[in-house]
């Protein structure tokens, strides 16, 4: 016993946190310039889907993914309050034990109606939906072929499973086809794509890519997190817009963007899909969403089915902002507006952070995105529009960007 | 037909050149991250070049096991096998 103690005393402790030292140093350097921490913003009060109080200042929100502005929809809020009264604050249980309430079935029905698909499975977050579905369906000996710019939740789903992971260059149909062609015969194949890529706001050529995937006998999963509600004739996303939704085996989506609350889902027509509820660990081993959340989601999803006017206004805003920022001299992530995300490319992290702060002082919040989350090591100011942004706000935003761009020395 | 190791190594050496910005002398022990200073984007382009040259797949899982040039050559020889 004493021997063990003395052994312990002589051993130096390896600090498990030393691996984070480069990041800690990078942050220290950035903050030592006096810039406000871009990852520490607190909203003291949220006034509407497009305005909040930040540091005591009224701030236009242009980085919330609240595309359809459903967060303050009166019907949505009423449904949530009612469910809170009727079913309580939380389920305290897994979906497969005590955590499935009438509301969870109702939101899955709403998703089946929204996408016109047979099966829907709701997860506690969008992250868990990708994590769970990808890691469960692609197993040992199977191949996952995915776009290199895929979201972290897709990569983590790959890492959690046992399949061989084969990435290809962003949106490169030929690179994808080469990799599919080289996969050994008889192996299971899953192609993972996104409708809208959230960093640059660009869309995928899904029609062509899915046709290639099908030619090689692959199943296809498309993450439509950033398109739900406003892309496609029924707001089902980029695959619907390009007329290839019928060839998508699994659509992944989220409640935390257009739907305006939190949660994730997978919809599918696969005849055996329901077995996922028993084998998908991120679905089984976590508590289900609170009743108020699924009630707000159900109401929101059903309202999104008939939101054509809001959709049209959102697209109008996207076009106006894209043109305004281009005319002002900013470099954007796409040549034309492809989604409700407009990414403004910054020369480097330091000036990006300066610009971000200058915008905050103007009263505008956008996302500062930096490597490694960004493609090609870019620093981006990512703007996501909301259907509730007025035409006047969009003009205000362009003015703020122009002034801040001059302050930060970017224009 | 299995290609011998020397021939495979020569073909990979040719492919590495455009990515070897500092002109590091490459031996079997040369490490991609530490010696050649490849970042994740360079790795992707370099791996794609090798995959195309040899018509093979080097999955991320396999890449995780490859740290130096010698291990890459061995892996490519094996994948062609």
Automatic annotation (TrEMBL), chain A:
It comes from the Bacteria. The keyword Transferase applies. GO terms for molecular function: pyridoxal phosphate binding; transferase activity. Residues 59-398 form the Aminotransferase class I/classII large domain. It holds the Pfam family Aminotran_1_2. Coiled coil: none annotated. Keywords: Pyridoxal phosphate, Transferase. Its cofactor is pyridoxal 5'-phosphate. Transmembrane segments: none annotated. InterPro entries: Aminotrans_II_pyridoxalP_BS, Aminotransferase_I/II_large, AON_synthase_class-II, PyrdxlP-dep_Trfase, PyrdxlP-dep_Trfase_major, PyrdxlP-dep_Trfase_small. The keyword Glycoprotein does not apply. Belongs to the class-II pyridoxal-phosphate-dependent aminotransferase family. NCBIfam families: SerpalmtaseAlphaP, SerpalmtaseBetaP. This is 8-amino-7-oxononanoate synthase. It comes from Novosphingobium lindaniclasticum LE124.
């Amino acid at each position: 016993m004493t021997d063990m103690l003395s052994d312990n005393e002589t051993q130096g402790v390896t600090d498990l946190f030393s691996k984070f030292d480069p990041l800690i140093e990078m942050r220290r350097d950035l903050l030592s310039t006096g810039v406000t921490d871009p990852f520490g913003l607190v909203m003291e009060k949220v006034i509407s889907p497009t305005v909040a109080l930040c540091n005591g200042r009224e701030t236009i929100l242009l980085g919330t993914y609240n595309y359809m502005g459903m967060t303050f929809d009166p019907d949505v809020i009423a449904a949530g309050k009612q469910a809170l009264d009727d079913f309580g604050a939380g389920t305290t249980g897994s979906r497969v034990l005590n955590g499935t309430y009438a509301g969870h079935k109702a939101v899955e029905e709403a998703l089946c109606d929204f996408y016109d698909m047979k099966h829907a499975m709701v997860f506690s977050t969008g992250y868990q939906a990708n994590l769970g579905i990808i890691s469960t369906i692609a197993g040992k000996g199977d191949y996952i072929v995915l776009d290199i710019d895929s979201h972290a939740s897709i990569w983590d789903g790959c890492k959690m499973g046992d399949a061989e992971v084969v990435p290809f260059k962003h949106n490169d149909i030929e690179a994808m086809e080469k990799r599919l062609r080289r996969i050994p015969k008889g192996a299971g194949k899953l192609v993972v794509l996104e409708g809208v890529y959230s960093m640059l706001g660009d869309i995928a050529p899904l029609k062509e890519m899915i046709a290639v995937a099908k030619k090689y006998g692959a199943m296809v999963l498309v993450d439509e997190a950033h398109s739900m509600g406003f892309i496609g004739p029924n707001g089902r996303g980029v695959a619907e817009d390009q007329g290839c939704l019928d060839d998508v085996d699994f659509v992944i989506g989220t409640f935390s963007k257009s739907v305006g609350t939190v949660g994730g889902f997978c919809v599918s027509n696969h005849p055996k899909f329901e077995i996922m509820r028993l084998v998908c660990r991120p679905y089984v081993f976590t508590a289900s969403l609170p009743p108020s959340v699924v009630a707000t989601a159900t109401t929101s999803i059903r309202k999104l089915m008939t939101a054509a006017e809001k959709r049209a206004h959102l697209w109008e805003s996207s076009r106006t902002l894209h043109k305004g920022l281009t005319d002002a001299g900013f470099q954007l992530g796409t040549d034309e507006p492809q989604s409700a995300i407009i990414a403004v490319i910054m020369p480097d992290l330091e000036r990006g952070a300066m610009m971000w702060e200058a915008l905050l002082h103007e009263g505008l919040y956008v996302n500062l995105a930096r490597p490694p989350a960004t493609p090609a090591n870019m620093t981006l100011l990512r703007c996501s529009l909301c259907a509730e942004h007025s035409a006047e706000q969009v003009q205000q935003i362009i003015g703020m960007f122009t002034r801040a761009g001059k302050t930060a020395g970017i224009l | 037909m299995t290609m011998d190791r020397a021939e495979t190594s020569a073909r990979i050496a040719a492919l590495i050149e455009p990515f070897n910005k500092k002109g590091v002398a490459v031996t079997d022990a040369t490490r991609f991250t530490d010696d050649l200073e490849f970042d994740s984007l360079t790795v992707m382009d370099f791996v794609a070049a090798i995959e195309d040259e040899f018509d093979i797949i080097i999955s991320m899982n396999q890449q995780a096991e490859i740290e130096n040039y010698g291990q890459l050559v061995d892996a490519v020889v094996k994948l062609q096998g």
